[in-house]
């Protein structure tokens, strides 16, 4: 949880205005902060990045650089969803809704305080939903990390 907080804070300090979450892009489009064409390009870039990430990680693991990269483990994964699928979708949707609602409400808060508030919120959401769904609440990240797990289920 400490690393989640730390990386969320570093992301907030260094990557202001970027979005690696399709939900964030769609929120910007709906609020009029981005044109539909620009949003579509960003969504496509996120999809391509997620697919490239899946391919690159598989290729790196197949090299067997360490004892943890043996061939039996290359494509093995554990499905992070520990509840039935409808509950998992609801949990992820609620986490995403809470996070994006907080983004909207914290816009008026000073940047340095907002970063800590959002980092704490992300850490809480990961703690609250992590044992049930993996608490990704990011479809792009879920595709790049867990798609094979979901495909096997």
TrEMBL record:
- Say where the protein is mainly found: membrane
Q: Name one GO cellular component term.
A: membrane
Q: Carries keyword NAD?
A: no
SUPFAM superfamilies per record? Aquaporin-like
InterPro entries from the UniProt entry? AQP11/12_channel (IPR051883), Aquaporin-like (IPR023271), Aquaporin_11 (IPR023266)
Where is the protein situated, by its record's location annotation?
Membrane
Q: What is this protein called?
A: AQP11
Q: Which species does the entry assign this protein to? A: Bos mutus grunniens (Wild yak)
